[in-house]
């Protein structure tokens, strides 16, 4: 899921951007911020970068296969519509 160091960094950035009066509460505020952030972020449906990249590659391969299947389907439909053209094409390829 999310790297605890990233959550800590975000909590620190929020803490540093708070007004001076609020900062005086010190580490307690930062700890509570970290806890709230982790709790809220865990509710989100997130994936890590590695999983995202893997799924992107799977999608690309799937699209390539789909394009090839669509082309093949078009060729088969063309043969059905004009069976003589399919025979002539085979003859040309054999020569």
From TrEMBL:
<feature type="coiled-coil region">
    <location>
        <begin position="59"/>
        <end position="86"/>
    </location>
</feature>
<comment type="similarity">
    <text>Belongs to the UbiK family.</text>
</comment>
<dbReference type="InterPro" id="IPR007475">
    <property type="entry name" value="UbiK"/>
</dbReference>
<comment type="function">
    <text>Required for efficient ubiquinone (coenzyme Q) biosynthesis. UbiK is probably an accessory factor of Ubi enzymes and facilitates ubiquinone biosynthesis by acting as an assembly factor, a targeting factor, or both.</text>
</comment>
<comment type="pathway">
    <text>Cofactor biosynthesis; ubiquinone biosynthesis.</text>
</comment>
<keyword id="KW-0175">Coiled coil</keyword>
<dbReference type="GO" id="GO:0005829">
    <property type="term" value="C:cytosol"/>
</dbReference>
<keyword id="KW-0831">Ubiquinone biosynthesis</keyword>
<dbReference type="Pfam" id="PF04380">
    <property type="entry name" value="BMFP"/>
</dbReference>
<protein>
    <recommendedName>
        <fullName>Ubiquinone biosynthesis accessory factor UbiK</fullName>
    </recommendedName>
</protein>
<keyword id="KW-0963">Cytoplasm</keyword>
<dbReference type="GO" id="GO:0006744">
    <property type="term" value="P:ubiquinone biosynthetic process"/>
</dbReference>
């Amino acid at each position: 899921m999310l790297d605890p160091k990233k959550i800590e960094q975000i909590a620190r950035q929020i803490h540093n951007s708070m007004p001076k009066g609020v900062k005086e509460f010190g580490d307690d505020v930062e700890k509570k911020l970290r806890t709230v952030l982790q709790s809220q972020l865990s509710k989100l449906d997130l994936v890590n970068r590695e999983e995202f990249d893997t799924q992107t590659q799977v999608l690309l391969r799937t699209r390539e296969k789909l394009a090839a299947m669509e082309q093949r389907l078009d060729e088969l439909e063309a043969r059905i519509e004009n069976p003589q053209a399919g025979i002539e094409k085979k003859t040309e390829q054999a020569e």
